[in-house]
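Design job #97: recover the sequence.
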């Protein structure tokens, strides 16, 4: 008897089961099933197939079954109407390590699985074999005396063939599925690192050069309109032929030369694409299928983080802030279009990109439209507005030039919003010697910034000992109780101070007096250690505490490899008048929003967590997706409702509760 159970009317699902995205039935959660469900989502949301034209485990005779069968639209689910077939295998257990990506010849034994199906079922024109990391697309060519299965770079979208696909136009590039884009980025990086033998950091930069080429090509589309000619593309079979690979290189080399001229603040001009023709063709073929400009900012951010996390863990872990935490900080700060925002320890630009995503949604809401549904006019208008906002209002700074470039590239990927990212020492500012100091002093002088969002490097193992820097700070002195509930500065300088302490003072001094506000990630010791009481007193003297959010250790340990308890502290800088009145005892107490996050959506190992009943069953609820399927050569939109597990994450709830708190306080 089948163990499948229809879940359309159920509100829970036993642990160890997943919901089939095609039928809504519950299926046992296996490594292979997880791969299959990811592929199903991509086939629907990227390629435009209708769920009604798909069937899992379709029998083609005897004991043979097709893992995912796709039938001609609206036709009966029969062998005669089976147009495409997918074979899925479980994902290799490689963790975050790079894995060598095989070519078609090296994977020939595995590809026999799909080729047997394609030879036996006459109607099947296209096949796909995947293990979740490797994707091998196959086209069947029926010759007079033989049936030949040949590799192609990708499937054409629903209802089309390789022969009808105009690869030079952007008509059939597609908006990326979140999970598939992340896997694509990882696969490209793995190919460079594993197949080309490059060190991780070199592979990282080679991949980012190509991301830049792709984004620049798309940006020219918006500027040149009718005159635009696409250069970042690969024909269906080009990557498998020597001449085709050379043609791809010629197009990309020309494009990269333009990129280096356009982005002189990022490129020195001597950078080269050091990949072999084979590797370059593979990556271009992987990326060319997507429309990055129209792909969701969050999806691109998650995919970029997949690479950044691999390359910046360990001794650079302090620069890496989990996306859920970043998003919460920005949502609680609620930046406005007229306000400047600065991250003085920006690392790879997580807070800056999240700000762009926040503002992009805000701009779309004002036009009553959504990502993927907006008209071309609205799309261009909203993105031009976003670029103008970033150019005028978004600022970042970091001491590490490697991270500056990574942040600049992240901003470009998010929407060509380069903003202003300076290579300066924020703790030494406005003094210092680094090259970006003059423009930073002009654009973001102390006391001029509306909002600061940051996760500064912290820890006693990286103390600040430079006397030249320490002498700028009140908190770099010894403080003692004044006998009246406060503290006094003794005037004695310390020889060593943890960087997060100095960053607190620097960030506050960077804000506009009276209105400037900030959200900062801090180790719990600052807020709870008895020895840090003078720091808390100083913060209370200089600012109004808006909110405090305690984070669980899982928030950082899974994604950033930092095993430490942290909190988020939100502050508003007081004006000099407020401080004067308060010193005279003229200001009453005020309410502070406080929250504790127990769950952040994943455990210490990074495994996703879902809400459960007291009996341990996972809770599911209906969720709507915009489905864009191709029927008769045109795109038809409809709403697809599927029951899905609910992520066990307190951070979005805290953001909503904070908005309610502010509404109550403001009447």
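Job complete. Output follows.
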């Amino acid at each position: 008897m089948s163990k499948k159970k229809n879940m359309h009317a159920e509100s829970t699902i036993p642990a160890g089961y997943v919901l089939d995205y095609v039928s809504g039935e519950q299926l046992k959660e296996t490594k292979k099933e997880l791969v299959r469900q990811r592929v199903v989502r991509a086939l629907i949301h990227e390629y435009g197939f209708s769920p009604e034209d798909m069937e899992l485990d379709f029998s083609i005779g005897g004991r043979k079954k097709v893992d995912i069968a796709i039938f001609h639209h609206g036709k009966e689910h029969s062998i005669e109407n089976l147009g495409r077939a997918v074979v899925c295998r479980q994902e290799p257990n490689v963790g975050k390590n790079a894995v060598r990506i095989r070519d078609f010849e090296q994977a020939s034994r595995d590809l026999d699985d799909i080729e047997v199906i394609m030879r036996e079922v006459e109607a099947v024109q296209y096949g796909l074999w995947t293990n979740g990391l490797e994707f091998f697309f196959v086209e069947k060519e029926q010759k007079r005396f033989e049936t030949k299965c040949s590799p192609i770079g990708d499937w054409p979208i629903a209802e089309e063939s390789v022969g009808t696909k105009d690869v030079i136009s952007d008509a059939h590039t597609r908006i990326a599925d979140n999970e598939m884009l992340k896997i694509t980025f990882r696969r490209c990086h793995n190919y460079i690192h594993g197949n080309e033998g490059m060190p991780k950091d070199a592979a990282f930069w080679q991949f980012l050069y190509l991301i830049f080429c792709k984004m620049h090509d798309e940006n020219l589309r918006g500027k040149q309109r009718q005159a635009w000619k696409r250069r970042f593309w690969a024909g269906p079979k080009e990557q498998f032929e020597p001449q085709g690979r050379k043609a791809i290189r010629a197009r990309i080399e020309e494009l990269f030369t333009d990129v280096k001229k356009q982005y002189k603040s990022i490129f020195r001009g001597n950078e080269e694409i050091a990949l072999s023709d084979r590797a370059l063709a593979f990556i271009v073929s992987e990326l060319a299928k997507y429309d990055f400009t129209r792909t969701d900012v969050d999806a691109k951010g998650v995919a970029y983080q997949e690479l950044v996390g691999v390359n910046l863990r360990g001794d650079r872990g302090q620069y890496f802030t989990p996306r859920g935490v970043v998003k919460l900080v920005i949502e609680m700060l609620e930046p406005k279009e007229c306000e400047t925002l600065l991250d003085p320890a920006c690392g790879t630009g997580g807070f800056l990109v999240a700000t762009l995503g926040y503002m992009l949604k805000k701009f779309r809401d004002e036009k009553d439209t959504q990502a993927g549904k907006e008209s071309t006019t609205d799309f261009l208008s909203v993105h031009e507005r976003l670029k103008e906002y970033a150019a005028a209002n978004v600022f970042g700074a970091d001491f590490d030039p490697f991270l500056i470039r990574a942040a600049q590239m992240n901003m470009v990927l998010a929407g060509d919003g380069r903003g202003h990212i300076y290579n300066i020492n924020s703790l030494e500012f406005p003094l210092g010697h680094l090259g970006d100091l003059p423009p930073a002093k002009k654009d973001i002088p102390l006391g001029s910034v509306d909002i600061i969002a940051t996760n500064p490097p912290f820890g006693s193992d990286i103390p600040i000992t430079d006397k030249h820097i320490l002498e700028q700070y009140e908190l770099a002195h010894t403080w003692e109780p004044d006998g009246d509930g406060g503290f006094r500065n003794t005037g004695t300088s310390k020889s060593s101070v943890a960087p997060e302490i100095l960053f607190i003072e620097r960030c506050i001094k960077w804000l506009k007096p009276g209105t400037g506000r900030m959200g900062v990630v801090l180790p719990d010791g600052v807020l709870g250690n008895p020895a840090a009481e003078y720091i808390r007193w100083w913060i209370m003297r200089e600012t109004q505490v808006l909110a405090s959010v305690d984070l669980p250790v899982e928030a950082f340990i899974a994604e950033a490899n930092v095993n430490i308890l942290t909190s988020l502290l939100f502050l508003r800088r007081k004006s000099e008048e407020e401080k004067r009145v308060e010193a005279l005892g003229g200001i009453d107490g005020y309410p502070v929003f406080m929250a504790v996050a127990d769950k952040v959506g994943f455990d210490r190992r990074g495994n996703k967590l879902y809400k459960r009943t007291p009996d341990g069953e996972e809770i599911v609820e209906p969720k709507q997706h915009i489905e864009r399927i191709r029927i008769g050569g045109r795109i038809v939109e409809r709403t697809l409702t599927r029951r899905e597990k609910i992520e066990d994450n307190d951070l979005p709830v805290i953001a909503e509760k904070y908005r309610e708190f502010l509404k109550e306080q403001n009447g």
